[in-house]
Write a structure and sequence with these properties.
Layout: H1 4-11, H2 15-23, E1 35-37, E2 41-50, E3 55-58, H3 69-77, H4 81-92, E4 122-123, H5 126-137, E5 142-147, E6 153-162, E7 165-173, E8 178-179, H6 192-195, E9 200-204, H7 207-215, E10 220-221, E11 242-246, H8 251-264, E12 272-275, H9 287-296, H10 301-313, H11 347-352, E13 359-361, E14 365-366, E15 371-375, H12 381-394, E16 410-414, H13 419-432, E17 443-446, H14 455-468, E18 472-476, H15 490-506, E19 510-516, H16 539-542, E20 545-551, E21 562-571, E22 577-584, E23 597-602, H17 603-640, H18 650-657, H19 660-671, E24 676-682, E25 688-694
Parallel strand pairs: 9-10, 9-11, 11-12, 15-19, 15-20, 16-17, 16-18, 18-19
Antiparallel strand pairs: 1-2, 2-3, 4-8, 5-6, 6-7, 7-8, 13-14, 20-21, 21-22, 22-23, 24-25
C-alpha cells in the first residue's frame, strides 16, 4: 500500500505543476487568485487556496472535502482515490517507499559518458542505489529532489548529519535506472517547476537554506553539487526575472554569489540581479540561520517574510559588467498575522491510512500522546521520570521490570531539582542497571524551562529540538513553565498547552509534563490516584496518557530511605495498569552513598498483601490491647488480696476484681509470678476450700 503521507511529502510545493499536468487545470489559474472554474465555469469562483498542500476551491462545485491535492485530482479527473494515488505515484516517479523509481524508457539530460570511462552500477530504483551509501552512513538525515520542468525526479541529493559534519551523496537517474553518481551537465535547478511562473527568485547556497525561504512563501532555488559547481547547472530558467542572490557568510559563499552573478549575466533576456546579504549572520551562516534567529526572538513566519522582502526592496541592482556587490539596506519588519491552515482527510483516506500506535515503552508509554506524570509533593516523581527517560534513551527496561524501551533521543528540562540532584539521581539509576551516566549519549539535560505562551520561548524550544534531533521532551515541573495566573481557567490553560503541543507535534516530538496533584483527602491519602486528582484546569483534558504516583504508606524517616508507592498508568488509547513500587534509596552519610533498589508488583498483588498486612496489624493491635488490659488486672488482683489477709478463693478474687474478659489471663500471669502461695480458706458456709494467699517479701 502506498504511504499517502510520503506521497504528499514528495508533492509538497509542486502541486500547481501536478494539478496542471494531471488535472488539466490551466497553470495560470493556479496562482492563488480568483479565476473561472475549470469544471463549472463562472468568472471568479475558483482558486488555489494552499499551494503546499495542493488544495483548490470552487464555491459552486468543490467547496467541501477539498483539503489537499489528492482530493483536487479526484475532483478534476473524476477518478477514485486508488486511481489518483497510482497516477500521482507514476507522475512523481515513486516506487511506494518515498524514493523515485527507475524509468527505462526515458533519457536523462546531459551528454553520454566519454569513451573508455567506466560506467557506474545502475540500480532499478533510487532506494537500491541509496542502500550503497547506507551501508556505511546509515539512514540519511534528509534528502532533496531535483526534477525536470515536468516534475519528474532526475536527481536526489542525500544528506547525513554526523558528529564529524555533514555528508552529501547524489543518486541520479540514468537511461536504465538509478546510479550513485552526479547528474550529467547541465544540471537542473532546485524546485525547477515552481520557477516557471515566478517573477522574483531567491538563490541560496544549498537546499536547506532554499527550503526555509520556500516555507516563508518565496520562490527560491539553488544549484546541485555544492558552492564550486554553480557552472554545472542550467540557469536559463531565471532569464528575464528579478533574482536575489543570498550568499553564505564566508569566502566560499561570496565566491558562489559571484559565480552565479556571472552565469546570470550571460542569459538572454538578462535578469535583474541583486545580492542580498542578510545582516547579523554567524560565521558560515545562511538564510536558515537568519530565519532561525528571528523565530527564536519571537517573530512569526509572516513577520520574517516581511523583513526579508524589506531588505530585498532596499538592495541595489548589480552592474553585471563590473560585478558590483552593494551592501543591504537596514533591517525592516512589518507585523502580520500568523497563517492558519486546516487540513482534512476524507473518510476513505482515514480508512485506508495506517495509524498504528508507536511505543516508547510497549503498552506502557506511547509516542505522540501528550503525557502527564502527576504526584503529590515529595513522591519521587522527578526521580522516576529520570529513570523512565534514561530507559528510553538507552533502550533498556524501565525499572528493570517493564518491556524493553525503544531507543529515542530525549531532553529532560528540570527547573526545580538542580544539576547536583539530577546528577546524583541519574548516577544511581544508571549504576543500578550496570552502566555509566557518561555513556548515555541519547539523553540531554537542561535546568532552563520554556514559558508556555511565550512565542520566543516556544521557537527556541523548536530550534533545540531540531538541532539535537529530540524525540521526547520532558518538562519538570509545569508550574514553573506556566504563567500561574488563571490556573483555574480551562480556556486559558488549554490554549497555553495547545501551542506548545502543536509545535512539538509539527517537529515529531512527544511531550511529557511533570505536574502536581490537588490536595488528596485524608481518607484517600494512600490510595491509587485518579485522573481527576491532577491539579489545575485543562491538564486532565489535555492528557492523552498519564502516570499517577502516590504513596501507599507514609514515608518513615527512620527507615533506610524506603518508599512504598502506587503507579497508576492510563491512556485514551486503552493501555495502562496499576503497579506497586517498593524503592529503597538508602541514606547518604560521610561514608555511604545512596542507591536505587526497585521492586515492582502488580497492583492486585499489592492490594492482597496490604489486606493481609492490615489484618495482621489488626490482630497484633488486639493482642497488645489484651496484654495491656491483662497487665492492669494483674495489679488489681494483687491489690485485691489486701482485703483477704487470710487468703481467698479464685472466685472471691474474681468477684472483687471483675474484668471477666481478661481475668483468666491475668490470673494465670499472677499464679506464674510467684506472688501467691496455696492455702486452705474457710468459706461463708463454714466449709474449707482450696485458696491462695499473697506473699509480702519473705512472709505470707
Amino acid at each position: 500500500m502506498t504511504d499517502t503521507a510520503q506521497l504528499k511529502f514528495a508533492a509538497r510545493g509542486r502541486w500547481p505543476e501536478i494539478l496542471s499536468s494531471l488535472g488539466n487545470i490551466p497553470a495560470e489559474h493556479l496562482d492563488g487568485k480568483h479565476h473561472p472554474c475549470p469544471k463549472c465555469g463562472g468568472t471568479d469562483r475558483f482558486r488555489l487556496i494552499n499551494q503546499e498542500a495542493g488544495a483548490v476551491y470552487c464555491n459552486k462545485c468543490f467547496s467541501t472535502k477539498n483539503g489537499d491535492g489528492i482530493a483536487a485530482l479526484q475532483w478534476a479527473t473524476g477518478r477514485d482515490f486508488p486511481a489518483v494515488v497510482t497516477m500521482l505515484q507514476d507522475h512523481l516517479g515513486l516506487n511506494g517507499n518515498g524514493h523515485s523509481s527507475g524509468n527505462r524508457s526515458s533519457k536523462p539530460p546531459g551528454s553520454p559518458k566519454a569513451s573508455g570511462e567506466k560506467s557506474p552500477t545502475v540500480f532499478p530504483t533510487s532506494a537500491e542505489a541509496l542502500a550503497v551509501y547506507s551501508r556505511t552512513l546509515g539512514d540519511p538525515t534528509t534528502w532533496y529532489e531535483y526534477t525536470n520542468t515536468s516534475g519528474r525526479c532526475e536527481l536526489i541529493v542525500y544528506r547525513w548529519d554526523t558528529p564529524g559534519g555533514k555528508e552529501i551523496r547524489p543518486v541520479s537517474r540514468t537511461a536504465d535506472g538509478w546510479a550513485c553518481c552526479a547528474l550529467p551537465e547541465p544540471r537542473p535547478l532546485y524546485r525547477l517547476p515552481s520557477l516557471a511562473t515566478a517573477e522574483t527568485v531567491y538563490v541560496s547556497e544549498g537546499e536547506k537554506a532554499a527550503d526555509v525561504l520556500i516555507d516563508l512563501g518565496l520562490a527560491a532555488t539553488t544549484s546541485p553539487s555544492g558552492s564550486k559547481a554553480a557552472g554545472k547547472a542550467d540557469w536559463s530558467p531565471l532569464a528575464g526575472k528579478q533574482v536575489f542572490i543570498l550568499p553564505d557568510h564566508d569566502e566560499p559563499g561570496e565566491a558562489y554569489a559571484g559565480a552565479v552573478a556571472g552565469l546570470l549575466a550571460k542569459l538572454d533576456p538578462a535578469p535583474v540581479v541583486k545580492v542580498l546579504r542578510l545582516p547579523n549572520l554567524p560565521d558560515k551562516g545562511d538564510a536558515f540561520d537568519y530565519v532561525a534567529r528571528l523565530r527564536s526572538e519571537g517573530a512569526s513566519g509572516d513577520e520574517i517574510l516581511a523583513d526579508i522582502e524589506a531588505l530585498a526592496a532596499g538592495a541595489e541592482t548589480i552592474n553585471l559588467d563590473v560585478g558590483d556587490n552593494p551592501e543591504p539596506s537596514p533591517e525592516a519588519s512589518a507585523p502580520s498575522q500568523h497563517k492558519f491552515r486546516i487540513e482534512v482527510v476524507t473518510s476513505a483516506q482515514l480508512d485506508q491510512g495506517v495509524y498504528e500506535v508507536e511505543w516508547f515503552v510497549p503498552y506502557l508509554f506511547a509516542k505522540n500522546l501528550p503525557t502527564i506524570v502527576a504526584a503529590p509533593q515529595k513522591s519521587l516523581k522527578t526521580t522516576l521520570c529520570a529513570a523512565l527517560l534514561l530507559a528510553i534513551a538507552t533502550g533498556r527496561k524501565f525499572l528493570g521490570h517493564f518491556a524493553e524501551a525503544s531507543r529515542n533521543r530525549v531532553l529532560f528540562m528540570s527547573g526545580e531539582s538542580g544539576f547536583h540532584t539530577l546528577q546524583e539521581s541519574a548516577r544511581r539509576i544508571c549504576a543500578a542497571d550496570g552502566f555509566a551516566l557518561a555513556d548515555v549519549d541519547g539523553m540531554l539535560w537542561s535546568e532552563q524551562l520554556p514559558q508556555f505562551g511565550n512565542v520566543a520561548h516556544i521557537e527556541e524550544t523548536r530550534r533545540v529540538i531540531r538541532y539535537h534531533g529530540i524525540e521526547l521532551l520532558a518538562i519538570d515541573p509545569c508550574y514553573l513553565a506556566m504563567p500561574g495566573t488563571d490556573a483555574g481557567n480551562l480556556f486559558v490553560q488549554g490554549e497555553l498547552l495547545r501551542d506548545m503541543a502543536f509545535m512539538l507535534r509539527d517537529e515529531g516530538c512527544s511531550l511529557l509534563l511533570i505536574h502536581h496533584t490537588k490536595n488528596i483527602p485524608s481518607q484517600r491519602a494512600h490510595d491509587p490516584l485518579e485522573l481527576s486528582d491532577i491539579a489545575w484546569a485543562g491538564f486532565q483534558e489535555f492528557a492523552r496518557q498519564w502516570a499517577l504516583i502516590n504513596r501507599r504508606k507514609p514515608f518513615d524517616p527512620d527507615s533506610d530511605g524506603e518508599h512504598h508507592l502506587w503507579l497508576n498508568v492510563g491512556s485514551s488509547a486503552g493501555h495502562g495498569g496499576l503497579w506497586g513500587l517498593d524503592i529503597t534509596e538508602g541514606r547518604r552519610t560521610a561514608t555511604t552513598t545512596r542507591r536505587w533498589d526497585v521492586q515492582v508488583c502488580k497492583g492486585s498483588e499489592v492490594r492482597e498483601a496490604d489486606i493481609q498486612e492490615q489484618e495482621q496489624a489488626k490482630s497484633d493491635r488486639k493482642k497488645r490491647e489484651r496484654d495491656a488490659a491483662a497487665d492492669t488486672v494483674y495489679q488489681d488482683i494483687l491489690q485485691a488480696f489486701v482485703h483477704f489477709p487470710g487468703g481467698a478463693t479464685k472466685t472471691k478474687i474474681r468477684e472483687r476484681v471483675g474484668q471477666a474478659r481478661v481475668f483468666d489471663a491475668a490470673w494465670m500471669k499472677v499464679c506464674n509470678s510467684g506472688e501467691l502461695v496455696e492455702c486452705r480458706v474457710k468459706g461463708d458456709n463454714g466449709q474449707e476450700y482450696d485458696g491462695w494467699k499473697r506473699k509480702f517479701g519473705d512472709r505470707v
